């Protein structure tokens, strides 16, 4: 991306965009992730965004990464190996998964970061299987704690690349309930949280219409058109009459990302 004299990668743009969505005093959850692009989307970009928010405008934004509360983000490990992660200094290491689930159900988390194999127009997520549930073509990682994230967290943020394989009209399996889309609402299902709050992709940013629950285009990344967005989705999102452009990171954002936060290029490889 190029904003005048500032040149950034799409990953840096996504991280900077998410950082502006994080507020002082909040608690955000980031999972462990797997590898490759999935790690970058579910873990790398959110961690960079969270640390950037702490350094720019939200010093008291707290991160719960995996089972580590407030890990030392001034010294992020050069590689995400389990041994390195286990020995990483943090305010606390909570080994009991039940503690995290208790925190979720009490409504302690303000933000969570979600990625998925499928996302539909109502923000329902699928990380369970692809194909007919009775005879799936592909079995995925399974639910993990994602159903609880979308059930209880105040502002879940979905982070995915925009393509027709991921952004489908209807997910093959609802791992996590978004804004429904059927005859029953989140309240009918007994889900206390408000559901997905934003979707940040490599092409655009979306939110959700309060009335219909449908995904709505919020901003286009520089150089991207609404027609390109529609070509990359298996459904047509709500497109307002006026859609803004996603701001590029400013020079200080880029300096912090490259020199302080991700100097080893482990979190957001180009």
Question: How does this model look, in words?
Answer:
The chain is an alpha/beta fold and 270 residues long. It has a single domain (2-261), classed as 3-Layer(aba) Sandwich (Glutaconate Coenzyme A-transferase). The chain has helices at residues 10-19, 36-56, 82-86, 97-105, 146-152, 226-231, 251-261, and strands at residues 2-3, 6-7, 27-30, 62-65, 68-71, 90-93, 111-114, 118-119, 125-126, 129-132, 135-139, 155-159, 198-200, 204-208, 215-220, 244-245. The protein has a ten-stranded mixed beta sheet with strand order 6-5-4-3-7-12-13-14-15-16, with helices on both faces. The protein has a two-stranded antiparallel ribbon with strand order 1-2. The termini are close together. The relative contact order is 0.17. The model has no long low-confidence stretch (mean pLDDT 90).
Question: What is the compact description of this entry?
Answer:
By secondary structure, the chain is α/β, with parallel strands linked by helices. It has helices spanning 10-19, 36-56, 82-86, 97-105, 146-152, 226-231, 251-261; strands spanning 2-3, 6-7, 27-30, 62-65, 68-71, 90-93, 111-114, 118-119, 125-126, 129-132, 135-139, 155-159, 198-200, 204-208, 215-220, 244-245. α1 (10-19) crosses α2 and α2 (36-56) packs across α7 (251-261).
